[in-house]
What we know:
The protein contains 3 helices and 6 strands. The chain has helices at 28-31, 59-66, 73-76; strands at residues 2-9, 15-21, 36-43, 50-51, 56-57, 69-70.
Amino acid sequence: MRVDIYRRAEQAGHFSYLAVPEGKMIPEEVVNTDWELSDRCVDVDDGATHLADFAIDAPLEQISAKGYAITSVRELDKP
């Protein structure tokens, strides 16, 4: 699967990331937040359980369940 990656600034210089299937719009429930395009056409392996560059756990499961995958809040708390 290929995804487009969006990011938004968080506290302490961290970013959270949103992965959306390539060419799809950001879902309405997150559109009111300040997301900016970060990367286009990122390949995600069929068996991927984590996207380390974006701190996203279970990306394919999240996309299947809600149409997008997002950085875990736990990842933002790490130093």
